[in-house]
């Protein structure tokens, strides 16, 4: 067993974390005072100011808000009505970036909406409203809402209905476009209402529905909030730890995302207090804006800091990290870091799940695409079957346990300390070519190809729109 060269600092940091309620106090303000913090709400700005001020209060350097412009979305009224063979209104919500619409078409189910379900349906989806559940078939890779929506639009569907696969949690939300109005309307229903629609289709054959939606997409400003602990021996190198702070407008977004953000704050607090003068490279703490509607804050950070990306040792993404489950590291395709983390785990005497994995659906991804080493906090040994109460109205403060916040904060603080103090960091930024190659061979990044096809569809429609305008 390796001895622990950081034992004194570990004891101070963990002793403080485990005898303080700072994480839960911050989480309470974020959820109960500021609400969802969804892009464009007053709570979003309050949260950004709160992070900036807290980082300052904790003694971090250069705490600031970095603004950027984006397409903000606001929901209006949305209704779903069965028009044939019966008449009935079903409760529903619009998915973020759903355009205004008044649309009547036949409803078709693709079950869980696996790629093979779309292949089997083929041309039958053209002109129809397609319904898919939020679940993924047993044994199949997890298929994200965005992929089901994109495959529907690509198959010629005119609308999309997302059906929750959990009992009693109402409809699940999630955006259907990135930083722009979506190409076809998308709405969401509960498992109970979706099951009713499925039974109706099975018994009566053909079911026609009408979707009426009034929503608004308009340009606004959001912010990433950034603060630093400078390095001593390697001041030009950085580790980044971050999490988004916007939730969805229908909930408090307690677990997803800010259970993770308060751990980023906590790590900043204890590292400044007990390790500030002993850091090797610098640590940058980031609260990302508007992740839920297209990773917009992280994309802007990567663009605004393009000339610093070579200097980043690792970005640790803490999205939702203070929820339940074990607190380990899912490393994104960097086996050359395995030995470092194996050693850290042994010297920390902490049973930390660690392994290689990948997903395209959080703020690490724009960094990954740019070739920066990234990882997330999570349990690589766990099997992801869905979000549970995440992305529903039930993602509220009462679900979060102080013990989970403390554990995630402890793991993050200890890892940041070790990464900062390592003299030789065993990996570096990929070239553009290397990054491209990694993306291509990764089955969990299938979504990237599907979304590239969807972008072509947007372009075709925009060209058609312009032609029609010119002739009209
Ligand atoms: Zn999230």
Protein described:
The chain folds into 2 domains: 7-71 and 219-433, Zn peptidases (Aminopeptidase), CATH 3.40.630; 75-215, Glucose Oxidase, domain 1 (3-Layer(bba) Sandwich). Helices cover 37% and strands 24% of the residues. It is built from 13 helices and 14 strands. It has helices spanning 7-17, 22-33, 42-57, 115-121, 145-154, 191-204, 254-275, 296-304, 338-348, 364-369, 402-421, 432-440, 446-471, and strands at 61-84, 88-90, 93-94, 101-109, 129-133, 159-163, 186-189, 208-229, 234-244, 281-288, 312-317, 328-331, 354-356, 374-378. Helix 1 (7-17) packs across helix 7 (254-275) and helix 1 (7-17) packs antiparallel against helix 11 (402-421). 51% of the residues are buried. The structure holds zinc ion (ZN). Zinc ion is lined by residues 244, 256-257, 291, 319-320, 362.
Got a strand count? 14
Number of helices: 13
The count of domains is 2
Largest sheet: 14 strands, mixed
Helix content: 25-40%
CATH architecture name of the largest domain: 3-Layer(aba) Sandwich
Derived structural class: alpha/beta
User: Could you state the order of secondary-structure elements as H and E?
Assistant: HHHEEEEHEHEEHEEHEHEEHEHEHHH
How large a portion of the residues is in β-strands, by DSSP E? Answer: 15-25%
CATH topology name of the largest domain, in short, is Aminopeptidase
Mean pLDDT comes to 96
The bound ligands are: zinc ion
CATH C-level of the largest domain: Alpha Beta
The separation of the N and C termini measures 76 Å
Q: Can you tell me the residue ranges where pLDDT is under 50 for at least 5 consecutive residues?
A: none
Global outline: elongated
> What is the gyration radius calculated from CA atoms?
23 Å
CATH superfamily of the largest domain: Zn peptidases
